Amino acid sequence: MSKRPSSRRTPDLLLAALLVLGSTTAEAGVGLFKLVQGPVSVLRGGQTLPASVGMAVEAADVIVTGDGAVAGLGFSDNSRLSLGPRSRLVLDRYQFDTTTHEGRFDASLSQGKLAVVSGKIAKHKTDAMTVGTPSSILGVRGTEFVVEVGAAP
Question: Would you kindly state where each structural domain of the chain is located, as residue ranges?
Fold first, then answer.
């Protein structure tokens, strides 16, 4: 009989994964998958693609993790996101100027767990990054945080 890890530990594990991911620069797209464990898919342009380490992340992608899956993403502004099992994240908007560090990063978590270490966009302008959930919008002020959204009844 196997023991299931405590869901209380998941945020700690997600943040630990973010620290390991480090920074990234994406040659194509706005970021890269740095960690993929278990079934993770990307909904892009009407297609469902299996995610893999090194795969480019594009603005407007929808990232979905399955049972027991996790995904770690690094973005061109050095933001790091980590998704827990059974999560759905929409990258609503991502713009970043590497010279001025100005930009905008908006995402929506409709289900699951998301850990974030914000990058240069949020550090440059305090209202330039948001994470929406079905019941709230979080303004990111240059910090680390975890968001959890339960499955719809």
Answer: 25-149
Nearest Cα to Cα of residue 124 among 93, 100, 91? 100
What is the SS3 assignment for 24? coil
For residue 87, give the nearest of 106, 72, 66, 116 by alpha carbon.
Answer: 66
Contact between residue 52 and residue 78 where contact means Cβ atoms under 8 Å apart = no
For the chain, give me the number of helices (H) and strands (E)?
2, 12
Burial of 52 (0-12, 13-18, 19+ CB in 10 A): exposed
Angle at 29 between CA 53 and CA 44, to 5 degrees: 80
76-119 per-position pLDDT tens digit: 999 999 999 999 999 999 999 999 999 999 999 999 999 999 89
Question: What's 144's DSSP letter?
Answer: E
At 6, is the secondary structure helix, strand, or coil?
coil
| Concatenated DSSP letters of 75-121 | ETTS-EEEE-TT-EEEEEEEEE-TTT--EEEEEEEEEEEEEEE--HH
Q: What is the pTM of this model?
A: 0.79
What are the backbone angles phi and psi of residue 21, rounded to the nearest 5°?
A: -60, -40
